[in-house]
Every structure is written in structure tokens, then in C-alpha cells.
Design goal:
heterodimer, A: 453 residues, alpha+beta, 6-stranded mixed beta sheet, 5-stranded mixed beta sheet, B: 295 residues, mainly alpha, 13 helices
């Protein structure tokens, strides 16, 4: 009997080892795309020397150039504050970014400092996933005193500060001025109409075909893209969603929009449906049709001008307003990327220090430049003025101009992704000749009614 | 007597304990939680509220995406599995002949089934069947201008079925093992009696192989209903174009993680379990008619 005791002891110790292994905190190094840079401090800052080492995580989305940039900025931050180690999580796919974030929040291990879009941070704030920042702002750890008060307010919800803008962005037309010029088209004026756009598409396509370019069009097919339909609706005094989350337009509007783009498609003035499925509506600029030189124009966020310019170094990229409706209303609204702090962060002070560094420290600003549009900190904007590139200057002047026309945008309801997908799916059905426009529109409305609660 | 038996077994139970804890924590509890969640409106960020059968009701009566995903998945399973098994059996018969380099061929044919479900292969497949992909380059040699097979709503699903066929190696190996077990004397006796090749196949090989066919059928059906990675990668997570590649599990994933409707996703998961269980049960029930056991 006694000889069995050693087996029992061995088993118990194995079980204990297993339990301790399961209980460990594993989120630090395991994520795909997470890098940690631990720097051995050569000089110790006096005030940091007394600090316990702290580890925080910062997360963002973007393309590879942005990952490189942010990592460099965070490396510098670590050198300045040797007791802080910054783990990084980044993603090229914004949908995956949000998928992962919600999973992490559900698992109580979200990153400490999180970058979110203006349309998303209210959803997270309402669900208590974000930390109110007022105390950190008041104590000066997160210094917003030099930020434009309007921009500061845009990060508030019901008067509570939840988010800090990294910059201002407006929707606009980003286009390849050199390519347009090559085919005899003048730079896009600030104010132009959808009819101008159609004429320009025709002229551009004819010239491209004459030049032997079978796969080159002026613009992508935005017929199924709710993100462009929405501003067009605003020009008509409507909106995709109303303030209380209902559909803000009728069948006639949708038919008019689908018909406009369907006509363009039938005349071969936009890329084929297959090409649109394969490469359209890029996830990141490097895989876009514009960088592949198949289109010359996008209706998209103004801060992407510098990114596209970076990829198309030999061409001049420019920025203008999106086409207007003759006699219609202004459709611009300001968007942006916002820094937030996780409500259950164990190190909110250090997370706030990162946000403060990104927004106020000249060392960071020199690298960051206008990655997310004109800077909220007006002193910093003046500081980088001598360093601005041509594209940067275009963006500053465009956003300043667009701000004049901007009006508040409706906050998207939680079912927006589903409704937008439905919209796109029905347009695809039309472009592949599977449904008529009337069918697609009525299908959309009956389906959407079920999605909207 | 009782004490002795207990003491003999306690060591066994203790060794079993870690696995049991794992089963409980990683399987039983999450499964139970998911059943509960399917009756709530859990959105991942806030506490779930009980809503009864609402998710299931909406699923069946109000969700055209659910219907689409069922259609897509059922086509994938009921077209893909038989084709794959026929292909696997055909190649097993071919390899049975004992050609030179048999072991090499066997290994080569088996490799795809090991890596086929991976992200890397899905990305490769996307490239091969894309507009500028390898398939179109080959077709161009014959003067055929190919479209983008993965981006076209009519063809996208079939590229995925093709990917499934490519993984025939693992059922093939099992068929091969089954074929080798058929006594050669039976074939010899049959040829003496004048049976031709086809007769020998349909009256000896196939009947004696039915247990293996049954096994492969069940395993492949269960696996195919759960297919996710290829559809996710090839459609970029969209299930498109026009829901052409919206596999059931992909729709589940989208609902749970993209739309944050985790209660609904849980309901979808349990419905899938029901579907797979029903189909499997049907195959089991009919098996009495066509599976021949050697006892």
C-alpha cells in the first residue's frame, strides 16, 4: 500500500503545476502583430527612477507605413520613460481590429490606450468600456490646454471627456492630378457637381482606352458604398440613418443612386464588378486600385492624401470636395481617430502619458506630422509648419475649408455594419445582373426593416 | 474488498483529474454558457438579458442571410463530400495496383489534406483562382480568357469545393487500408467464375468497403458543415460576393464578432449542432440498409 503514495504525490504535484500554468496572464506576447520593445535605460530620469516598472498596451489600425511610424514614436516614448514598457497591437484590417477589441473587452484584457474612430467611441463609452478622462485632464497628466476647444469637445459624450482627437479629417476627393493631366483633364475645382464627375469619367476613360489602358478608370464604383451614398443623401437634406436609428431615405433616393452608378457601369466608366469584388474598397492603401494604377480618384478621408502620395511618389496627388448636387446642401462632416483609455486599465496614468506624448510632445509630433489631419494642438501645428510637405499643406487648407461647410453627423446605430452590408450586397446583385434595380431596392427595404430594432 | 478496489482506482482517477478539469473548464462550461447565451441578447459588452426563443424565431422566419448560408453550406456538403469520396476511392483503387513509387505517391496525395484547411493554403488558392491567377494563365495558353473565379458570385463557391476535393488524401488513405483488407481469394474466385472488372468492383469491392465508406461519409459530413477558414480567407471575411461564399460558420462568426450579436450567434451554433446531428442520425439509420459488416 505504501508504494502507491509516491504515485499520488506525483499526480497531485502535476495537477498543481497545470493549474498554475493555466492561471497565468498570457495576453502580453501572444498576439499576432504584437511587438514589445524593452529598452535598457542608459540614463535614468530622476522622477522615473523611483517608479515600479509598468507595462501598458497601445492599439491602433492602419497600413504598414503607419505601423512603422507609431512603433518609432512609442520607442522614443519608452526611452523618455524607461520604467514604462509599451506593448503594441496593430492590425491592417479595421474590421478585424474591432472584432478583436470587443473580444478583449469581453475577456477583461483590452489594451490600455485604444485608438477608435469618432463613430465608434460613443458605442464603447455607452457600454462602460472607456475611462472618463476628466480627472487625468484636470491633473495635467493629459494636457489638453493647447488643443482647439471645438476639437476637445468632439471627444465628449454628455459632457464627459472620453476621447482625445489625433486630428481632424473631412471626406473629400483624393485624386491623381498628374494622371488626370496626362489625359488632358484639369485639376478638380473645389466645387464641382455629379454631372461634372460623369463627364470627367467619360473623358478620362476615352483617353485611357486610346492610350491602350484597358484597366484604367477615373473612379471606383461607389454604387454599393453606403459611405458615399450617405453624403449624397446629406446633399439632398437627408441622411442614411436618422437620429433615432431609422432609415433616413426612401426608395426613390436609392433608385436614383443605383441608377446613376449602374449607368456608369454599363458605359464601362467604372471598374468591372469582378474587379470591384477582388480589389475594390481597399482595406489598406497599398492594396488599392489607385496604387495599382487602375483608378485615379477616390471619395475618402482627407488624411489619406499623404499616405497615397507616399505610395505614388512620381505623381502629384491632390484633394478637393466631393461632387455636389446642383443647388444641393453641403454634406461635409468632420471625422477622426481618437485616443481613448480602457475603463479597466490597470495603468491609466501611463496610458494618459502616451496620449499626452502623441499629442503634445514636439519629439513625437515631428514624426507624427499630420497622420490624422491638422493637429488639435495649435502650437504644435505651428511648430511643424516649416516641415509641411506639399500634401500636408493641401490637407490643412482643405480641412480648414471643409470645416466651413461641416455640420454634425448622425451617430451610427449598432446595426450599421449589417445594413451597410445589405446595401452593398443588393448593389452587387444589380451589377452582376442578378436583380433589377427595382427588385434590389425593395429587397433592401424589406430586409433592412428586419435588421432595424 | 471494497476498500481494495477503491485504492486501486484512486491513482487512476487522480491521473484523470487534469484532463477532467480541462474538459469541464474548456468544454463543458463554455458549451453550457453558450446554450444559455442563445436565449439572451448578449452583445459582448453588456450583461445579457433573457429573451427566450426570439433569436431562434428571427433566424428561421426573418433572416434571409441565414437561408443563404444554409443553401451555401448544404451545397458545399452534399456536392463536395460525395465528389471527394468518389475521387478518393478512385485514387485508392489506382494506388492499390502496386505501381512503382507507391509510397511516394501516397505521401504526396496525403499532404494536401494536412495543410488544406490552413490560412496559407487559402491565401494561395485565392491567388491561383484570382483574375490574374495561375488558372487564368494556363487558360490563356488555350486562348480562353478567364474571369476572377473567386470574385464571381456564380463560381466562387465551386473554387471552395475544389479546395475540398484537393484534400482527398486522408479519406483516400483510409480507403486504401480498407481495400487491402479484402481477401484476394474472393477476387480470384470471382475471375474463375467469369466476373469482369466492373462486376468484381460492384459485387465484391464496394459491398465489403461499405463500412469504410460509412466512416468516411460521417467524418467528412461533420467536418464540412464546420468549414470556416477557406471561406473566410477567400472572401476576405465577407462571405461575398452576394453571400455566395457565406458558409454557416462564417455567418455565425460575422454575427457574433462583427455585429456583436453574440446571443444570435450562439443560437446559430446550437442550430448547426442540431442540423449536423440530424444528418448524421439519418446516415446512421439508413446505414443498416447498405452497410455490410463481415459478421
Amino acid at each position: 500500500m505504501k508504494r502507491h503514495y509516491w504515485k499520488i504525490a506525483l499526480t497531485i504535484s502535476l495537477v498543481l503545476v497545470l493549474l498554475t500554468a493555466c492561471g497565468g496572464n498570457n495576453n502580453a506576447g501572444n498576439d499576432k502583430g504584437t511587438e514589445s520593445a524593452v529598452t535598457t535605460p542608459t540614463t535614468e530620469k530622476v522622477e522615473d527612477a523611483k517608479q515600479e516598472p509598468v507595462e501598458i498596451t497601445v492599439s491602433w489600425w492602419g497600413g504598414d507605413p503607419r505601423h512603422k511610424l507609431y512603433n518609432e514614436i512609442l520607442d522614443n516614448f519608452e526611452k523618455k520613460h524607461p520604467y514604462i514598457t509599451v506593448l503594441r497591437e496593430f492590425n491592417n484590417d479595421i474590421n478585424q481590429y474591432y472584432d478583436k477589441l470587443t473580444t478583449q473587452i469581453a475577456g477583461n484584457n483590452a489594451p490600455d490606450a485604444i485608438i477608435l474612430q469618432e463613430s465608434r467611441f460613443p458605442i464603447f463609452a455607452e457600454r462602460d468600456a472607456l475611462l472618463p478622462l476628466d480627472d487625468l485632464v484636470a491633473s495635467g497628466v493629459l494636457d489638453l490646454s493647447k488643443h482647439d476647444p471645438n476639437v476637445v469637445d468632439s471627444g465628449k459624450l454628455d459632457g464627459v471627456q472620453y476621447a482625445v482627437a489625433q486630428g481632424n479629417i473631412a471626406l473629400g476627393t483624393i485624386y491623381n492630378e498628374s494622371l488626370l493631366g496626362k489625359y488632358g483633364i484639369d485639376p478638380v475645382p473645389l466645387n464641382w457637381t455629379w454631372d461634372n464627375f460623369k463627364d470627367m469619367s467619360q473623358k478620362f476613360r476615352e483617353a485611357a482606352l486610346a492610350d491602350g489602358q484597358k484597366e484604367l478608370w477615373l473612379s471606383e464604383d461607389f454604387g454599393g458604398w453606403a459611405g458615399t451614398f450617405h453624403p449624397w443623401l446629406r446633399q439632398n437634406g437627408k441622411s442614411f440613418f436618422t437620429d433615432d436609428g431609422k432609415i433616413g431615405f426612401d426608395e426613390a433616393d436609392m433608385k436614383a443612386w443605383f441608377t446613376m452608378w449602374d449607368d456608369l457601369r454599363k458605359k464601362d466608366l467604372v471598374p468591372t464588378p469582378i474587379l470591384m469584388v477582388e480589389m475594390g474598397h481597399y482595406k489598406t492603401q497599398e492594396v488599392s486600385l489607385m496604387v495599382a494604377n487602375k483608378v485615379a480618384m477616390y471619395f475618402t478621408a482627407s488624411n489619406q492624401l499623404q499616405i497615397f502620395q507616399g505610395f505614388l511618389k512620381d505623381d502629384v496627388m491632390s484633394l478637393s470636395r466631393i461632387p455636389q448636387i446642383e443647388g444641393g446642401q453641403d454634406s461635409e462632416y468632420l471625422v477622426g481617430a481618437y485616443f481613448t483609455i480602457y475603463s479597466k486599465s490597470k495603468n491609466p496614468k501611463e496610458a494618459a502619458m502616451v496620449i499626452d506624448y502623441f499629442g503634445n510632445d514636439p519629439e513625437a509630433i515631428d514624426l507624427f506630422m499630420m497622420q490624422q489631419g491638422p493637429l488639435p494642438n495649435k502650437e504644435m501645428q505651428a511648430h511643424i509648419d516649416p516641415l509641411l510637405t506639399e500634401s500636408d499643406k493641401k490637407v490643412v487648407s482643405y480641412v480648414t475649408e471643409a470645416s466651413k461647410y461641416a455640420s454634425p453627423n448622425v451617430l451610427p446605430p449598432v446595426y450599421q455594419p449589417d445594413v451597410f452590408t445589405l446595401f452593398k450586397s443588393n448593389y452587387e446583385a444589380v451589377s452582376f445582373d442578378k436583380k433589377s434595380i427595382d427588385e434590389a431596392v425593395s429587397d433592401f427595404f424589406s430586409e433592412a426593416a428586419r435588421l432595424i430594432k | 474488498m471494497h476498500g481494495k478496489v477503491w485504492r486501486r482506482n484512486v491513482t487512476g482517477y487522480l491521473f484523470l483529474a487534469p484532463w477532467f478539469v480541462g474538459l469541464l473548464v474548456f468544454t463543458a462550461i463554455p458549451v453550457g454558457a453558450s446554450l444559455y447565451i442563445s436565449f439572451t441578447n448578449y452583445d459582448v459588452l453588456t450583461t445579457p438579458e433573457w429573451i427566450g426563443w426570439l433569436n431562434y424565431h428571427n433566424m428561421i422566419f426573418q433572416d434571409s442571410n441565414f437561408i443563404d448560408s444554409l443553401k451555401v453550406t448544404l451545397i458545399y456538403v452534399f456536392l463536395g463530400v460525395p465528389l471527394e469520396l468518389i475521387f478518393a476511392l478512385a485514387l485508392a483503387l489506382f494506388l492499390l495496383k502496386g505501381i512503382k513509387g507507391l509510397t511516394v505517391y501516397r505521401a504526396i496525395f496525403y499532404v494536401p489534406s494536412l495543410i488544406g484547411g490552413s490560412v496559407a493554403i487559402a491565401i494561395l488558392w485565392k491567388q491561383v483562382f484570382g483574375a490574374k491567377g495561375m488558372l487564368n494563365s494556363v487558360l490563356a495558353v488555350f486562348g480562353i480568357e478567364g474571369t476572377s473565379w473567386i470574385a464571381h458570385p456564380d463560381y466562387a463557391l465551386y473554387t471552395l469545393i475544389l479546395l475540398k476535393l484537393w484534400q482527398f488524401g486522408s479519406p483516400m488513405i483510409i480507403f486504401l487500408a480498407g481495400l487491402k483488407q479484402i481477401p484476394i481469394e474472393l477476387y480470384e474466385a470471382a475471375s474463375i467464375d467469369g466476373a469482369g472488372k466492373i462486376s468484381r468492383f460492384s459485387r465484391i469491392t464496394l459491398p465489403l468497403l461499405t463500412p469504410i465508406v460509412f466512416f468516411n461519409l460521417i467524418m467528412q459530413i461533420i467536418g464540412s458543415f464546420q468549414a470556416f477558414t477557406p471561406a473566410y480567407i477567400i472572401s476576405d471575411g465577407s462571405g461575398g460576393p452576394m453571400n455566395a461564399t457565406l458558409f454557416y460558420t462564417l455567418y455565425l462568426y460575422k454575427k457574433g464578432f462583427a455585429s456583436l450579436d453574440m446571443g444570435y450567434a450562439a443560437a446559430l451554433a446550437w442550430t448547426l449542432l442540431l442540423i449536423i446531428a440530424t444528418v448524421t442520425a439519418l446516415v446512421f439509420l439508413t446505414s443498416k440498409k447498405w452497410v455490410y459488416y463481415d459478421n
